[in-house]
């Protein structure tokens, strides 16, 4: 019998339980359970339904048992930057406020005006690009709005750390997700106490940082009773991009990685951080990766825009257009010329993505799309252009010439976007595997349990196990 491992991979719009195992020298994946993840209004903020997510995690574990897959280990990965606070008794005392909430508006400017945290100083220490929703700004916003919660807090846990705590009763903070807070020193690879002190944040809430592949512990007795399963929880690269990058079957060191989902995370793997002024001004980030690699990348808005357009087109019976239908609509408008800045904050959480795209075109005095096909073409062309811009910046900062773009994640299935990316960048695109994030999660578990010897061996196995499509520029 093969040894089964379970990846719980939760993105901004959905989550899934995927079983992985090795058989005949290939990795096999089986989706067991899928569930929706959505934002809710709570206490005046946009929040994640964290209790609902944990219920789905337990239901998915039960489904594994019911379908005959008893995992030898499991790991959880999610998006980055968001967190909850616990009191000294281990009870959650804060909502899981989402990064799309507006509470961080203006926070960086306030800190800089008061001379508390000039961003050049901040970036030189952490290497994390500015995004208004970075954890550091969320904590400062909470400090302003709810100081009493921070005063009572005894621990901060990132979302996957908290879900692991609910399963095991063990509090811990995993490295790849911790680095996205903007509070981990890029060189010391641990919490930057000087930054924490400058911001007046309580040092006690920052627990020791653990590396991916750390064994967290067994299910608690209560979880064993509820699910009928006992397994060991292993920390993967719990930031979903960290897991996705592990699954890239790069052929050489001149490959650009693109994790394509709700966000497009485009970058490379470096062994040392780059934290100079030029890197800061180009808004590149140095996120911590597996084995202390650095994911040197640009966060780009990604398929979030397309996902929102699709949701807006729901008909009276609740039916959504298919992604192939939207792609065909874009192809029919392939000559439409307008481009928008997909990284503009206006696209983070607009009331209508369709109207926001139209207004952005109008504001920049370009032709305004009048059909869904034209709106879709604007988004596709704008994404491809931004990918090109990010690769140019990477070449400028690293001094390397890149020869391919390796795309993993759900977006790797979009062959229209793949072709536009190849055309815009002039580079060959290698697309796949689709379940990149869950696969990277599973690889860490397999390495931790000594089924696979190394990351390089894992990437070699991936090339043998999955159909990787090659797209040449036209």
Portion of residues in beta strands equals: 15-25%
Unreliable stretches covering 5 or more consecutive residues: none
* Secondary structural class: alpha/beta
Radius of gyration from CA coordinates: 22 Å
Mean of residue pLDDT values: 95
Could you characterize what this model shows?
The mean pLDDT is 95. It is built from 18 helices and 19 strands. The strands form five sheets. A seven-stranded mixed β-sheet has the order 15-16-14-13-17-18-19, with helices on both faces. It starts with a strand and ends with a strand. Helix content is 38%, strand content 20%. It is an alpha/beta fold and 474 residues long.
Present the secondary structure layout:
Blueprint: E1 5-10, E2 14-23, E3 26-36, E4 39-42, E5 45-48, H1 50-66, E6 73-77, E7 83-86, H2 107-113, H3 119-126, H4 135-145, H5 147-152, E8 155-158, H6 159-168, E9 173-174, H7 175-178, H8 193-198, E10 209-210, E11 215-218, H9 221-227, E12 232-234, H10 240-246, E13 255-260, E14 264-270, H11 277-281, E15 285-288, E16 294-300, H12 304-312, H13 323-332, H14 353-363, H15 372-398, E17 404-408, H16 415-425, E18 428-431, H17 436-448, H18 455-465, E19 469-471
Parallel strand pairs: 1-6, 6-12, 9-10, 13-17, 17-18
Antiparallel strand pairs: 1-2, 2-3, 4-5, 7-8, 11-12, 13-14, 14-16, 15-16, 18-19
Helix pairs in contact: 10-17, 13-15, 15-16
Gist?
The chain has 474 residues and is an alpha/beta fold.
What are its keywords?
alpha/beta; globular; 19 strands; 474 residues; single chain
């Amino acid at each position: 019998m093969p040894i089964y491992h379970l990846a719980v991979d939760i993105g901004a719009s959905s989550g899934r339980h995927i079983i992985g195992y090795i058989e005949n020298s290939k990795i096999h994946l089986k989706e067991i359970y899928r569930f929706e993840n959505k934002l809710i209004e709570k206490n005046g903020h946009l929040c994640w339904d964290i209790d609902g997510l944990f219920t789905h995690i337990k239901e998915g574990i039960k489904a594994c048992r019911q379908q005959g897959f008893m995992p030898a280990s499991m790991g959880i990965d999610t998006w980055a930057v968001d967190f909850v606070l616990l009191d000294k008794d281990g009870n959650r005392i804060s909502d899981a406020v989402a990064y799309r909430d507006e509470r961080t508006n203006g926070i960086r400017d306030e800190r800089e005006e008061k001379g508390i945290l000039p961003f050049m100083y901040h970036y030189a220490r952490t290497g994390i690009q500015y995004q208004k929703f970075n954890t550091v700004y969320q904590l400062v916003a909470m400090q302003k709005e709810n100081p009493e919660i921070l005063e009572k807090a005894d621990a901060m846990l990132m979302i996957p750390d908290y879900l692991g705590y609910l399963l095991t009763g063990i509090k811990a903070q995993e490295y790849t997700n911790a680095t996205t807070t903007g509070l981990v020193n890029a060189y010391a690879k641990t919490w930057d106490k000087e930054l924490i002190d400058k911001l007046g944040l309580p040092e006690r809430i920052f627990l020791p940082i653990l590396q991916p592949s750390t064994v967290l512990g067994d299910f608690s007795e209560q979880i064993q009773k509820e699910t009928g399963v006992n397994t060991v929880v292993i920390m993967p690269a719990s930031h979903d991009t960290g897991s996705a990058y592990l699954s890239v079957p790069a052929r050489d060191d001149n490959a650009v990685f693109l994790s394509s989902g709700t966000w497009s995370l485009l970058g490379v793997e470096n062994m040392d951080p780059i934290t100079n002024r030029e890197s800061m001004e180009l808004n590149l980030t140095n996120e911590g990766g597996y084995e202390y690699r650095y994911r040197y990348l640009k966060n780009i808005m990604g398929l979030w825009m397309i996902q929102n357009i699709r949701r807006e087109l729901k008909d009276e019976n609740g039916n959504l257009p298919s992604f192939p239908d939207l792609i065909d609509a874009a192809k029919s408008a392939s000559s439409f010329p307008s481009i928008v800045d997909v990284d503009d904050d206006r696209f983070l959480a607009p009331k209508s993505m369709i109207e926001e795209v139209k207004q952005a075109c109008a504001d920049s005095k370009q032709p305004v799309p009048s059909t869904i096909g034209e709106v879709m073409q604007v988004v596709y062309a704008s994404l491809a252009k931004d990918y090109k811009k990010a690769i140019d910046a990477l070449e400028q900062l690293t001094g390397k010439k890149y020869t391919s773009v390796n795309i993993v994640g759900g977006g790797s299935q979009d062959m229209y976007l793949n072709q536009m990316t190849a055309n815009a960048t002039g580079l060959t695109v290698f697309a796949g595997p689709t379940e990149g994030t869950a696969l990277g999660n599973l690889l860490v578990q397999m390495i931790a349990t000594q089924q696979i010897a190394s990351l390089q061996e894992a990437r070699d196995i991936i090339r043998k196990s999955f159909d990787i499509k090659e797209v040449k520029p036209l």
